[in-house]
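Issue 218. Parser rejects a valid record. Input:
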Amino acid sequence: MTQPRQEESARVSSEEREHLDKLADELSRYDVRADVVDEHGPCLRVSNPASTLAVEDVICERREHDYAFIASFGVHLGSSGSLGVAAHKIAWLVGATEA
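Output the parser choked on:
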């Protein structure tokens, strides 16, 4: 009976990863490094090469109509329907752009 749960978990995880990959592509417009890592589920690790301390892990959560990008400290950064807005907020968060 555990097989369907594992398959469901893998499917959801791959959907989240797909959205994180799209966000990473959007972040390529900024001077940041963005890599999807799988530590405890997929997250997007974004860092500013100009600072060893400016690193943020962003997770992706399924919502009713889309996916939400959430900072490691719980702040909603944007949705899968507004990748540009989310990318700008994340770049600002790691100090790679001005508000």
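Fixed in the parser; the record now loads. The chain is about 35% helix and 30% strand.
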